[in-house]
Amino acid sequence: MKKELIVYVKSPENKKVVTAALESGVSAILLDKPESKKVKSLAKVKTIAPDGDYKLGEEFVIVEIRGKEDEERAAELLKKGKKVIVKTTDWTIIPLENLLAQGDEVYAWVRNSKEAETAITILEKGVKGVVLDTEDVNEIKATGEAISLVGENVKLEVARIKRVKPIGMCDRVCIDTCSNMKRGEGALVGNSSAGMFLVHAETESNPYVAARPFRVNAGAVHMYVRLPGGRTKYLAEIESGDEIMIYNYKGEGRIAYVGRAKVERRPMLLIEAETEDGKKVSGILQNAETIRLTSPKGEPISVVDLKEGDEVLVYTEEPGRHFGMKVKETIVEK
């Protein structure tokens, strides 16, 4: 779920703060006074204020947590359907954890990007959004970037398998992440950044091999893997501490950190598929039962069982990359 960034603006006259907030993708500006018109004169943006699109004190309520009594009041407001902005005197996450068990409309008052990153990942699901209280333009931008990387979703497409061809021994990369994945989740990899398969995590077990839900057996060293921010890297470049994107079959993404990446010689398969509108996707994956693509319903499909016409999930875009960053250029990849 995409998180919301709200920036607290002490004075709309401080145009640097307002502009930085707007450029950082804010969901709304929070104002103490009825000064929404001043903010809206700079850009089309929602406000939370006494005269705002959302009424401060009615739809959004700020609760400062000093003790259990305040926490109970916040919980009662959540039960009444209010959006509760939680302020803590020493920025402890315990009240936020307790309140997240009471409802989803919890927002955390934060002072910097680090506090924001913690708040949006508390108990895995995190708060619905953060209210950032700073006049540091760089901190506003850093927080906006941190928020944008959570819930980084993509539109997956259905492609039909066209060809599965054994090609012999190659160097392949197996990525062990620091996160466990569930059925229907995996990483996006492909021969081209313009077309990637959703390669399923090793969540399945059989009589011969135990499940390794933290692992994506990703493919040959030359292939691309999708990273946060729409970037890519060659699988050969992936190393411990790197961030990669994990997606489920609905296209909902989250960041996972790489624990290790193993390069080993293995027998491989060239797999080619095509979307309904003719976009081609290909990849070179290990020829083994434990390597799986993902069906449109989120079911893992072993590469050794693939046949022409089978439907799998892919991601496509216009080709063109320079050092992993998307660029607009004329390019043909075969």
From TrEMBL:
UniProt keyword annotations, A-Z: Amino-acid biosynthesis, Aromatic amino acid biosynthesis, NAD, Oxidoreductase
Domain 3-dehydroquinate synthase C-terminal intervals: 159-334
EC number: 1.4.1.-
The keyword Iron is annotated on this UniProt entry: no
Main EC class the enzyme belongs to: oxidoreductase
Annotated 3-dehydroquinate synthase N-terminal domain residues: 10-145
UniProt keyword annotation of rRNA-binding present: no
Example GO biological process: aromatic amino acid family biosynthetic process
GO molecular function: 3-dehydroquinate synthase activity; NAD binding; oxidoreductase activity, acting on the CH-NH2 group of donors, NAD or NADP as acceptor
Family membership: Belongs to the archaeal-type DHQ synthase family.
Name of protein: 3-dehydroquinate synthase homolog
Species this protein is from: Balnearium lithotrophicum
